[in-house]
Specification:
Layout: H1 2-20, H2 26-29, H3 36-39, E1 46-49, E2 52-56, E3 60-64, E4 71-76, H4 77-83, E5 108-112, E6 116-121, E7 126-132, E8 137-141, E9 148-152, E10 155-159, E11 165-167, E12 176-178, E13 193-195, E14 202-208, E15 214-215, E16 218-219, E17 236-237, E18 240-241, E19 250-258, E20 265-267, E21 286-288
Antiparallel strand pairs: 1-2, 2-3, 3-4, 5-6, 6-7, 8-9, 9-10, 10-11, 12-14, 13-14, 14-19, 15-18, 16-17, 19-20, 19-21
């Protein structure tokens, strides 16, 4: 009896190993094969709403049970645009892949497009806050104060939670760059503004690249196609400052500003002793160049 049990166990293990050692076929591996799509890894966009895992898809958001993997529909793209009373000119949301849930204890989702940033209450099914971001770059929104730091026409601004605009800098230019990461996101830094947790202070980078040699890039399509057979179109130079291609460094330094939503106080920091101290803020002056 013991030998029979041992034999059955051996046969079971052999069959299991045979199944695990199955080789892929060309239909499995080749693009266009009849089983290729089934074996492709699937991309998932995930975020957190407090302790709840959320999948943000193109047209739906689902909560996911982390133990069972079971999904539950939270809302759809059509729901968001209906509740936000969206229209094509201002607030139409195109997808939900970048949706975030800034408040762990509130049913609020932050969505938007290139023109507007919107907070939608998906329980009450209505918009509770919105802000126009048309013409802005390097947007950085703080959930505590609902203030937005951004760059417009080379200058750094703050729009407070009520939408009032405050200008922080006046000397921004192509050479003096405010509130943006340095060139190719060096040293893991992907932005140039850093809010304090309470949203009452803002640290930002000021980069002086006036001493940096321009990199001679060329626009090969500077004008519309010529309408005359005898006309000639020449490429136009569009020089770009590039420390990685220059022997001169671009100097950047951290600065802090207390936004007007509390006190209009701007303090320049030129050494580590006066640098901002909250987590994630820049802590010292740095230079960006190629050694």
């Amino acid at each position: 009896m013991t030998r029979i049990k041992a034999l059955l166990l051996s046969l079971t293990l052999a069959l299991s190993m045979t199944a695990q050692d199955k080789l892929f076929t060309l239909e499995d591996l080749n693009f266009g094969g009849n089983n290729y799509a089934n074996l492709q890894p699937k991309n998932m966009f995930l975020t957190w709403w407090g302790d709840q895992l959320v999948q943000t898809d193109v047209e739906e958001c689902y909560t996911i049970d982390v133990k069972t993997g079971k999904k539950r529909l939270l809302f759809t793209l059509d729901d968001i645009n209906k509740w936000a009373q969206s229209d094509d000119s201002v607030r139409y949301v195109r997808h939900l892949m970048n949706a975030t849930f800034p408040y762990p204890d509130k049913p609020l989702v932050a969505v938007g497009n290139r023109k507007a940033y919107i907070l939608v209450d998906f329980k009450a099914k209505k918009t509770v806050w919105q802000d126009s971001i048309s013409g802005q770059t390097a947007n950085d929104w703080n959930s505590a104060s609902r203030a937005t730091a951004y760059v417009e026409d080379h200058q750094l601004y703050i729009a407070d939670g009520q939408g009032k605009k405050h200008q922080l800098t006046t000397d921004g230019s192509r050479e003096i760059v405010y509130g943006q990461s340095v060139h190719r996101d060096e040293f893991g830094i992907t932005k140039g503004t850093f809010w304090s947790p309470d949203g009452q202070r803002l640290a930002f980078y000021r980069m002086d690249q006036s001493m940096v040699t321009d990199y001679p890039q060329v626009d090969i399509y500077p004008a519309p196609l010529p309408t005359s057979p005898t006309s000639t179109r020449w490429p136009a130079p569009i020089p770009t400052s590039s420390p990685s291609a220059s022997t001169t460094c671009a100097h950047r330094r951290p600065s802090t500003s207390r936004p007007p939503l509390s006190t209009m106080l701007q303090q320049r920091c030129s050494n580590p002793a006066t640098s901002p101290t909250w987590p994630g803020a820049p802590t010292r002056s740095t230079s960006s160049c190629r050694s």
